[in-house]
Amino acid sequence: MKYFFVSLMLLLAAAAQAEVKVVTSLPDLADLARRVGGDRVVVDYIVRGDQNPHALEVKPSYMMKLRSAKLFLIVGMDLELWAQQIVDGSRNDALRVVDLSRRVHKLEVPARVDASQGDVHRLGNPHYWLDPRNVRIMVEDIASALSGISPSDEQYFRANADAYLRQVEQKIVEWEQTMRPFAGRQVIKFHKSWSYLAAWLGLTVADQVEPKPGIAPSPGHTVELIAQVRKAGIKVIIVEPFYDASAAEQIARATGAAVLRLPTSSGVAGEAPDYIGLMEHTITALAGALK
Ligand SMILES: [Zn+2]
User: Fold this and answer.
1) CA–CA distance, 182 with 206 (Å, rounded to integer)
2) Distance, CA 47 to ligand 1 centroid (Å)?
3) How do residues 154-209 score in pLDDT, each as one tens digit?
4) Where are the alpha helices (DSSP H) in the chain?
5) If you measure from the C-alpha of residue 195 to the centroid of ligand 1, how many angstroms do you get, rounded to a whole number?
6) How far does residue 193's CA lie from ligand 1's centre (Å)?
7) For residue 186, how far is its CA from the centre of ligand 1 (angstroms)?
8) How far is the CA of 12 from the centre of ligand 1 (A)?
9) Which of 174, 169, 184, 190 is nearest to 259 (CA)?
């Protein structure tokens, strides 16, 4: 009996040791890391689903989260302009940072890096996680990164990744069916968060309430948008939860269009419990508003 308990304790200690601590920038990446890592990982994230990932105020607690982590997964393309600061502040020499954008087909990449794409999209549009077809690249790269840290678990990570991707791919077929009647329809966004989603679903983005990414709405641009919405009969203005909706509401009042508040990340108050839930919510809300 005594030996049994000793070996049980040793086994538990080994299991605790084998758990890889992963930190991600967004809750969406945390969900994907959990799907792939299963019970071999503990996962935490930095940005809450209702926070603007472009404008995060760095706190010492973020550095603490990274201090004991083995892996830090980021969206990349300068979405997390604050990432280097918290990596440096963590003083964790063993930390691996993996940029999940490396193999993604990128949209809105400027011919040269300057302010022509606004303040926050200098390397192109980083919101690629909102096209679920990019999940395959992200999940495969997460499986590779975890396998690099824990090679004996590679089969386990690959099997988890395949099972999750089958689930996502089945949902993609359903979402495409739901949205097929609305292909070619025009929408207005606040920020360029949904460029990848629009490209996937064949929606046309007529304009943004922000004149450029990271640049606040101006009265002149709002007046132009009112004319544009009236002329094209645009029904939907999509606004992220963390932006001021007053300019969008002004356009809506003047035109009869609807303001649709859509989260861009999971983990938002019941609406989007995980990545699939986020996309489900997005598609249901969009289809409802475009009807
Ligand atoms: Zn952005």
Assistant:
1) 15
2) 14
3) 999 999 999 999 999 999 999 999 999 999 999 999 999 999 999 999 999 999 99
4) 2-18, 27-37, 60-67, 83-90, 135-149, 154-179, 195-201, 219-232, 246-255, 275-290
5) 10
6) 5
7) 20
8) 43
9) 190
pLDDT digits (tens, 9 = 90+) for 247-264: 999 999 999 999 999 999
How many angstroms does the Cα of residue 119 sit away from the middle of ligand 1?
9
- DSSP code at position 49: T
> Which region among 41-55, 82-96, 155-169, 262-276 has the lowest average model confidence (pLDDT)?
262-276
Q: What are the structural domains of the chain?
A: 2-173 (3.40.50.1980), 177-290 (3.40.50.1980)
Ligand 1 centre to CA of 19 (Å) is 33
Tell me, in angstroms, the distance from the centre of ligand 1 to residue 49's CA: 14
Which tens digits make up the pLDDT trace of 115-139? 666 778 989 999 999 999 999 999 9
CA distance readout (Å), 3 to 9, 10, 15, 17, 102: 10, 10, 18, 21, 50
Residue 10 CA to ligand 1 center (angstroms) comes to 48
Mean pLDDT of 61-76: 98
Which residues is 99 bridged to in the sheet?
Answer: 74
Confidence at 229, pLDDT banded by 50, 70, 90: very high
Q: How remote is the CA of residue 192 from the centroid of ligand 1, in Å?
A: 6
Q: How far is the CA of 212 from the centre of ligand 1 (A)?
A: 10
